[in-house]
């Protein structure tokens, strides 16, 4: 749709480093795609995190993993998420919550984003039970020790790797 979208067209942004994208992330993306007309997955450059995969690789992985989701698009970014959302005219940020341990950090980020732009709403989605334990951190650790991780990431990402 054009910049002249009507008010019923709803879009959201789901950001992260996605290092790498996991089945848990895809679970959240699918849930968001069922709620919104468009979901923008924003892959953060995030050099301070010391990612295992390059920014370009991570963008490629996310594109591959979401290629069959028609209302999902993938972009890379290196700015404040709130600024990106404002630039893209997005008022809803999607965040995934796996466990209570995620909640405090995500709540603080949601409040911080809202303090910068009052129009920003954060919507917290939970993955299905089978994906509740999956995180990029766990996947990276398994990869480092040559363990079995193919059941934790989308098959399209395995093909890219």
How would you sum up this structure, described in words?
- The radius of gyration is 15 Å and the shape is globular.
- It has one domain (11-160): Rossmann fold.
- The chain is an alpha/beta fold and 161 residues long.
- It is 39% helix and 18% strand.
- A five-stranded parallel β-sheet has the order 3-2-1-4-5.
- It has helices at 23-35, 55-65, 81-87, 100-116, 136-144, 155-160, and strands spanning 11-16, 38-44, 72-77, 92-96, 121-125.
- The longest helix is centred in the C-terminal third of the chain and has 17 residues, at 100-116.
- Strand 1, helix 1 and strand 2 form a beta-alpha-beta unit.
- It starts with 10 loop residues before the first strand and ends with a helix.
- The protein has six helices and five strands, in the order βαβαβαβαβαα.
């Amino acid at each position: 749709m054009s910049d002249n979208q009507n008010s019923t067209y709803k879009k959201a942004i789901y950001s992260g480093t996605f290092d790498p994208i996991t089945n848990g992330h895809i679970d959240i993306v699918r849930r968001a795609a069922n709620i919104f007309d468009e979901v923008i997955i924003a892959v953060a450059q995030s050099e301070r995190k010391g990612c295992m995969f390059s920014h370009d690789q991570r963008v490629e992985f996310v594109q591959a993993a979401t290629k069959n989701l028609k209302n999902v698009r993938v972009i890379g970014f290196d700015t404040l998420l709130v600024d990106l959302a404002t630039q893209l005219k997005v008022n809803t940020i999607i965040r995934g919550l796996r466990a209570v341990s995620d909640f405090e950090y995500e709540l603080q980020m949601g409040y911080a984003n809202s303090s910068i732009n009052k129009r920003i709403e954060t919507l917290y989605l939970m993955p299905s039970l089978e994906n509740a334990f999956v995180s990029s951190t766990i996947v990276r650790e398994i990869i480092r020790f040559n363990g079995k991780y193919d059941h934790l990431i989308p098959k399209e990402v395995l093909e890219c790797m």
